[in-house]
Design a protein that fits this description.
By secondary structure, this protein is mainly alpha-helical. Helix content is 67%, strand content 9%. The strands form two sheets. A three-stranded antiparallel sheet has the order 4-1-5. A hairpin with a 2-residue loop joins strand 2 and strand 3. Helix 2 packs antiparallel against helix 3. It is elongated and about 130 Å long. About 2% of the residues have low confidence.
Length: 294
């Protein structure tokens, strides 16, 4: 029965190479230490002969022996220095291989997340469609139920569009991660977002300009080109002034490919001169409406 050995990974190959080089270096260092000890002994012997008045022939032999062991020690020192460089280079290659392996693992997790979203999206769409059908296929016509079905259908379209875009973004991040030019915080958990006031009805939209508005005592600021849940009371004025658009709008899909989706409910800089005050816009429209009536 034939047995096949598993092919080693790049990390395992460099780890084995590093162990081999470290062992060879240690052996070479021991040889150098022994050679330097002999050099010291030969020098002492030559010195004693010279002090004792040995013959020229004896001194020549002693000097020749001393030079031989010195050359041997010199060669060992050069070889040890070369091994030190090889060990450093192997350690660097091992670190690079480990970094590549870690990037591959993170990229695989990101792609798995995108796949899971793609697989879950149809189930969400089918569930939302079933809710809509429960209202639209009924005999009775109830305004509250009709509004409910319209809201569910709008959410269904938005979520499926957002799911498609986030899958595209995740796979783009995975490609960049494998190439080593993406920053993915895989260790530090993301800080939880501040929960939004549940009594405010919101619409998930995409900002085209940096926006500002108030929610009670809280001032909300969001940057341009970001996903955000905007209160429906301000949605109409923001749409009229072209400061936001729906997720399924064609220009939004292009902008999300260019700029990304931003962070949900992330804050814009408070000193941004381009911040658009939606409250002020809404108040201005109300003033204009009252003036027209008068």
């Amino acid at each position: 029965m034939a047995f096949f050995k598993r092919e080693l990974t790049a990390v395992e190959r460099f780890e084995n190479a590093l162990k081999t080089k470290q062992a060879a270096r240690q052996k070479l260092a021991e040889q150098l230490s022994a050679a330097e000890t002999i050099v010291g002994e030969k020098r002492i012997a030559a010195e004693r002969l010279a002090v004792a008045g040995a013959t020229d022939a004896q001194l020549e032999r002693a000097e020749a022996n001393m030079r031989a062991v010195e050359e041997r020690a010199k060669a060992l020192r050069a070889a040890l220095a070369e091994f030190d460089e090889q060990v450093v280079a192997t350690e660097r290659a091992l670190a690079d291989a480990k970094a590549r392996r870690d990037r591959e693992l993170v990229a695989d997790e990101i792609e798995a997340m995108a796949t899971a979203i793609e697989q879950a999206a149809p189930g969400f769409g089918a569930g939302a469609a079933a809710l809509v059908d429960a209202v639209t296929k009924g005999v009775a016509s109830v305004p509250e139920a009709t509004r409910f079905s319209m809201s569910v259908e709008a959410v269904r379209r938005e979520v499926l569009s957002a799911a498609e875009l986030i899958c595209w973004e995740l796979r783009t991040i995975a490609v960049r991660t494998r190439a080593g030019n993406a920053n993915v915080a895989s260790c530090a958990p993301a800080e939880p977002e501040q929960p939004l006031a549940p009594e405010i009805e919101r619409q998930l939209i995409y900002t085209l300009n940096p926006l500002l508005w108030h929610e009670g005592s809280v001032v909300r600021r969001v940057p341009a080109f970001a996903l955000v849940g905007l209160a429906r009371l301000l949605l109409a004025v923001a749409l009229r002034h072209q400061h936001v658009d729906y997720l399924n709008a064609r220009r939004v899909q292009t902008l999300m490919h260019v700029h990304g989706s931003g962070e949900f409910n992330s804050d814009s800089h408070p000193d941004d001169p381009q911040l658009v005050d939606l409250d002020a816009l809404a108040a201005g429209e109300q003033e204009s409406a009252r003036a027209d009536v008068a």
